[in-house]
Amino acid sequence: MKRCLVTGASGLIGSRLLRLLSPHWQVHAIGRTAGERLPNVTWQRVDLAAPFDPGELPGNVDTVVYLAQSEAFREFPEKAREIFAVNTDGVLRLLDYARSRGVKRFVFGSSGGLNEEAPVAAGNLGFYLGTKLCSEVLVRNYAPLMSTVVLRFFFVYGAGQKSGMLVPRLVRSVREGTLVTLQGAEGVRLNPTYVSDAAESIARALDLEGSHTINVAGPEELSLRRMCELIGTALGRAPLFEPQPGEPRHLVGDTTKMRALLAAPRVRFADGLRFMLQEGA
After folding, report:
1. In this predicted model, what pLDDT tens digit does every residue of 201-230 receive, in sequence order?
2. Could you tell me whether strands 189-190 and 222-223 are parallel, antiparallel, or unpaired per DSSP bridges?
3. pTM, whole model, 2 decimals?
């Protein structure tokens, strides 16, 4: 069996990825806490925000998947060091580990906020996206040494997601009758990604050769208003809106590369939302 090391393995995407890989891969799962017990999955507790010895990691893996990111990503500047340690310094340490062990492939989970179709000047990114951009540059520098795949995820959602993320926040607002602020009449347009499509894309990326940067996004483009309307239908509650003047910066990912190199996204928002609510979100 091929061997894979996954950081952020207990997170939303990582935990779903392990279920896909478990039947076919030997997986060394890295997390601050151990997650689900699965066949062929070995857990190791590592806090990437703290110093750790890469020599304690396994010596014979084919692929590294870096999905870890700091939970304090909104707490700048108070937790800038922690954010940088996990989002950027940890990436460099795992890249160097991969180089020293002769790893064939490095897959990095980045953000759709770095969308090439809507470029933003680096100085306006904010600290979180700045750390992701730095890490993308680091990963590409290792491309002569191994295959490198950067996956830019667009608004991944699913059951068990942290309450502060976009879709759980919208669900809570509609459920509690809280006003949802929109820029303009419809609000920002985006194509949210159900977690199973995100995990499937990573699993397919484990077969790619060469250097790639690929958007991972959902199958449909929706306004924030339309997303809330679909949530309202699922909950039996009419959403309340507060339109504001201004032109939103849309965050829609072009999925052409995703469809060609990985897999076409399959789960439409109404279906993903139903799955999420059925599992207790």
Report:
1. 999 999 999 999 999 999 999 999 999 999
2. antiparallel
3. 0.94
Q: What values do phi and psi take at 8, rounded to 5?
A: 65, 30
Give the CA count within 13 Å in the CB-facing half-sphere of 97.
24
50 burial via Cβ count (<10 Å: 0-12, 13-18, 19+): exposed
Please identify every stretch of the chain with a pLDDT value under 50, giving residue numbers as ranges.
117-119, 121-122
- Cα end-to-end span (Å), the chain: 35
Which residue segments constitute the domains of the chain, with CATH numbers given? 2-153 (3.40.50.720)
For residue 53, give every residue at least 6 positions away whose Cβ sits within 8 Å of its Cβ, in sequence order, or none: none
Question: What is the structure's pLDDT at 34?
Answer: 85
Q: Which residue has the tokens 């699922």?
A: 234
Spatial neighbors of 51 by CB under 8 A, at least 6 apart, are none
Q: pLDDT tens digit string along 162-175?
A: 989 999 999 999 99
